[in-house]
């Protein structure tokens, strides 16, 4: 959420829900180079300091942003993108809670600082959790929430006079409150016989380490001063004609012309249009199909947008190319349909997590993960428990991996976290998320939360409002949240399109008793279906296994137990997928870091791959299963993307 809009929201918010309007200013197109746009990545080493002062406010009191950081005290080298927690040898920094300061000095190309027809934008891919940004000591913006990008037009600051360098300072605070997403609490421990003065810990109700820092690229990009600010594309089919509806928002001038062309993968123009809004028709369209569902999955067209405007300084053009997949999504009482065909989610839950870099974006890791997903034969994943990087979604578009895109609504269990303050923030996060991810064909459903205390009284109003707003913002996709509440007590379930249930039979209860899984799981599905008649997804199930631990007969934490537990689930899933179960997502793709606890052995070990992405026995089991399921549901005949 960009600070500044909150007041207006409080007044207008309730009026806007349900009518598709949004108060977010501006679009959030992925920064792509084009004939009119350049980009400069600021990845690499930044100067860094954590503010260890008692109140954590020394940086503000001494105004560390006013001069180079090295002048106000010692600094560390900190890689970006990366979490700051695991790169050092300092245990105190690993668990630091409070403000940390990042700084980078850069030289800008001369044209950027001298050409007043160039707009220079500073974009931060993700800063966890609250961020304040200064350029050359001038405050430019604040943003709440990790996982989603934010940006500021800094042209005036860098074009105000002769400039040799530009200093970017970003202060980031990872403190969570009952109203943040995810929520958290700070607990002061005041018993002087046990804790030193001022001692506090941060408590969270989610099961992953609260990594912090600049997790994704920071970059500068340029556009002309009259520019394409946002593009929204939705697609449909009429017989074999693909329909591409587009809407383009232009900023900077009222006198402009927009031309669009849709190109196929060979670069052939398939349709053309003029105007900021319209529909393109593609005869015999190639549809965007999920991985292994079609001989040519993930077909992507390119929508080339050209803006021409008359400005005081003469004619200006801006160009932007957006990948477009033509596909439809629909839900019936018992099916999830993609392009009118039943789709079964065979996939995983993931985390953005790896050793050393924490939640820092990393290309080799990303490519490895996609290679593993395809090796598994998986066709889907959920972005548990927050929005992943834009590059992840781009690869999903390209490979046909279907995404349930989840908000950071994880650990909403305190009554305060269902208050209007929290709800308002959650609504804004959904706006930011949809604004960023709306054009990805791979994203087929929004997930608003994971395991909220949806049995609490205020949960009904909370989810009713949140779901209505999400649907108003994007009527083209189904909406869900992931529950572990009893079917009779869940106050949010009436409003979702798909029931997503997490259960850990024979792990968190009846431990060691795999023989009860089939009965308990069948009962779970039957109860929910009887109550709601909506398609269901087993959105989590799994067991911890430490790689190399073997016990036969299986004992908990051995690879055999993990595998055996999955096999029991599969028996029931194979029955119910013939009726109304439309997917299964294993918990988890890979082992990941959590808070320390007596039930976590250096993190959560429910991965079917280790944290270093090596397979455990369960990975081979799932691979066999997923390829078998893929062969059963392959629907193609050879031709033009139609069955
Ligand atoms: C869950 C949570 C997930 C945990 C998992 C576990 O239900 O949704 O975040 O990591 O269980 O392993 O306990």
Automatic annotation (TrEMBL):
<keyword id="KW-1133">Transmembrane helix</keyword>
<dbReference type="InterPro" id="IPR017853">
    <property type="entry name" value="GH"/>
</dbReference>
<dbReference type="GO" id="GO:0004566">
    <property type="term" value="F:beta-glucuronidase activity"/>
</dbReference>
<keyword id="KW-0812">Transmembrane</keyword>
<dbReference type="InterPro" id="IPR006104">
    <property type="entry name" value="Glyco_hydro_2_N"/>
</dbReference>
<dbReference type="InterPro" id="IPR006103">
    <property type="entry name" value="Glyco_hydro_2_cat"/>
</dbReference>
<feature type="domain" description="Glycosyl hydrolases family 2 sugar binding">
    <location>
        <begin position="40"/>
        <end position="224"/>
    </location>
</feature>
<dbReference type="InterPro" id="IPR023232">
    <property type="entry name" value="Glyco_hydro_2_AS"/>
</dbReference>
<dbReference type="GO" id="GO:0005764">
    <property type="term" value="C:lysosome"/>
</dbReference>
<keyword id="KW-0732">Signal</keyword>
<feature type="domain" description="Glycoside hydrolase family 2 catalytic">
    <location>
        <begin position="329"/>
        <end position="630"/>
    </location>
</feature>
<dbReference type="GO" id="GO:0005102">
    <property type="term" value="F:signaling receptor binding"/>
</dbReference>
<comment type="subunit">
    <text>Homotetramer.</text>
</comment>
<dbReference type="InterPro" id="IPR006101">
    <property type="entry name" value="Glyco_hydro_2"/>
</dbReference>
<keyword id="KW-0458">Lysosome</keyword>
<dbReference type="InterPro" id="IPR008979">
    <property type="entry name" value="Galactose-bd-like_sf"/>
</dbReference>
<dbReference type="InterPro" id="IPR036156">
    <property type="entry name" value="Beta-gal/glucu_dom_sf"/>
</dbReference>
<feature type="transmembrane region" description="Helical">
    <location>
        <begin position="6"/>
        <end position="30"/>
    </location>
</feature>
<dbReference type="InterPro" id="IPR023230">
    <property type="entry name" value="Glyco_hydro_2_CS"/>
</dbReference>
<keyword id="KW-0325">Glycoprotein</keyword>
<dbReference type="Pfam" id="PF02837">
    <property type="entry name" value="Glyco_hydro_2_N"/>
</dbReference>
<dbReference type="GO" id="GO:0005615">
    <property type="term" value="C:extracellular space"/>
</dbReference>
<comment type="similarity">
    <text>Belongs to the glycosyl hydrolase 2 family.</text>
</comment>
<dbReference type="InterPro" id="IPR006102">
    <property type="entry name" value="Ig-like_GH2"/>
</dbReference>
<comment type="function">
    <text>Plays an important role in the degradation of dermatan and keratan sulfates.</text>
</comment>
<dbReference type="Pfam" id="PF02836">
    <property type="entry name" value="Glyco_hydro_2_C"/>
</dbReference>
<feature type="domain" description="Glycoside hydrolase family 2 immunoglobulin-like beta-sandwich">
    <location>
        <begin position="226"/>
        <end position="327"/>
    </location>
</feature>
<dbReference type="GO" id="GO:0005975">
    <property type="term" value="P:carbohydrate metabolic process"/>
</dbReference>
<dbReference type="GO" id="GO:0030246">
    <property type="term" value="F:carbohydrate binding"/>
</dbReference>
<keyword id="KW-0326">Glycosidase</keyword>
<dbReference type="InterPro" id="IPR013783">
    <property type="entry name" value="Ig-like_fold"/>
</dbReference>
<dbReference type="GO" id="GO:0019391">
    <property type="term" value="P:glucuronoside catabolic process"/>
</dbReference>
<keyword id="KW-0378">Hydrolase</keyword>
<keyword id="KW-0472">Membrane</keyword>
<protein>
    <recommendedName>
        <fullName>Beta-glucuronidase</fullName>
        <ecNumber>3.2.1.31</ecNumber>
    </recommendedName>
</protein>
<dbReference type="Pfam" id="PF00703">
    <property type="entry name" value="Glyco_hydro_2"/>
</dbReference>
């Amino acid at each position: 959420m960009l600070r500044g809009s909150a007041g207006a929201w409080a007044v207008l918010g309730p009026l806007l829900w349900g009518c598709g309007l949004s108060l977010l200013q501006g679009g959030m197109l992925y920064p792509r180079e084009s004939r009119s746009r350049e980009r400069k990545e600021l990845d690499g080493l930044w100067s860094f300091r954590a503010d260890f002062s008692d109140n954590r406010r020394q940086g503000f009191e001494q105004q560390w942003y006013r001069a180079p950081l090295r002048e106000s005290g010692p600094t560390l080298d900190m890689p970006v993108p990366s979490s700051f927690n695991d790169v050092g040898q300092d245990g105190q920094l690993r668990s630091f809670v409070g403000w940390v300061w990042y700084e980078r000095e850069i030289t800008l190309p001369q044209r950027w600082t001298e050409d007043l027809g160039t707009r220079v934008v500073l974009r931060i891919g993700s800063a966890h959790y609250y961020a304040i940004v200064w350029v050359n000591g001038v405050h430019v913006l604040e943003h709440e929430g990790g996982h989603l990008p934010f940006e500021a037009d800094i042209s005036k600051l860098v074009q105000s006079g002769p400039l040799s360098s530009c200093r970017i300072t970003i202060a980031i605070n990872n403190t969570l409150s009952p109203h943040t997403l995810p929520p958290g609490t700070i607990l002061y421990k005041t018993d002087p016989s046990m804790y030193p003065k001022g001692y506090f810990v941060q408590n969270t109700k989610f099961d992953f380490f609260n990594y912090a820092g600049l997790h994704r690229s920071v970059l500068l990009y340029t556009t002309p001063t009259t520019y394409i600010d946002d593009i929204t594309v939705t697609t449909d089919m009429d017989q074999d004609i693909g329909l591409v509806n587009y809407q383009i928002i232009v900023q900077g001038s009222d006198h402009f012309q927009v031309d669009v062309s849709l190109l196929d993968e060979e670069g052939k123009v398939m349709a053309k249009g003029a105007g900021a809004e319209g529909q393109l028709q593609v005869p015999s369209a190639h549809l965007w199909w999920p991985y292994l569902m079609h001989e040519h999955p993930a077909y992507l067209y390119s929508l080339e947008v050209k803006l021409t405007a008359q400005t005081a300084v003469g004619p200006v053009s801006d160009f932007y190319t957006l990948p477009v997949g033509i596909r439809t999504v629909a839900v019936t009482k018992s099916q999830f349909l993609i392009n009118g065909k039943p789709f079964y989610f065979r996939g995983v839950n993931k985390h953005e997590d790896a050793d050393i870099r924490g939640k820092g974006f990393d290309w080799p890791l990303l490519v490895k993960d996609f290679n593993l997903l395809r090796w598994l034969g998986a066709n889907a994943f959920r972005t548990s428990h927050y929005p992943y990087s834009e590059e992840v979604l781009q690869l999903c578009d390209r490979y046909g991996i279907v995404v349930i895109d989840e908000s950071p609504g994880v650990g909403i269990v305190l009554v305060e976290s269902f208050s209007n303050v929290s709800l308002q923030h959650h609504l804004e996060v959904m706006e930011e998320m949809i604004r960023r991810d709306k054009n990805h064909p791979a994203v087929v459903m929004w997930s608003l939360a994971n395991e909220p205390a949806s049995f609490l009284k205020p949960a009904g109003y909370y989810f009713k409002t949140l779901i209505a707003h999400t649907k108003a913002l994007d009527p083209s996709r189904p909406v869900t949240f992931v529950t572990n509440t009893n079917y009779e007590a869940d106050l949010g379930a009436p409003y979702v399109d798909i029931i997503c249930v997490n259960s850990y039979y024979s792990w968190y209860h009846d431990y060691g008793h795999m023989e009860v899984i089939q009965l308990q799981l069948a009962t779970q599905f039957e109860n929910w279906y009887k109550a709601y008649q909506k398609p269901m997804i087993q959105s989590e199930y799994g067991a911890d296994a430490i790689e190399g631990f073997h016990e036969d007969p299986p004992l908990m934490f051995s690879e055999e137990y993990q595998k055996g537990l999955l096999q029991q689930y599969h028996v029931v899933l194979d029955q119910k997928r013939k009726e109304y179960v439309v997917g299964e997502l294993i918990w988890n793709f890979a082992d990941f870091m959590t808070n320390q606890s007596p039930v976590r052995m250096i993190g959560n070990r429910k991965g079917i791959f280790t944290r270093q992405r090596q397979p455990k026995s369960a990975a081979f089991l799932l691979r066999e299963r997923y390829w078998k399921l893929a062969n059963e549901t392959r629907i193609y005949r050879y031709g033009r993307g139609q069955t």
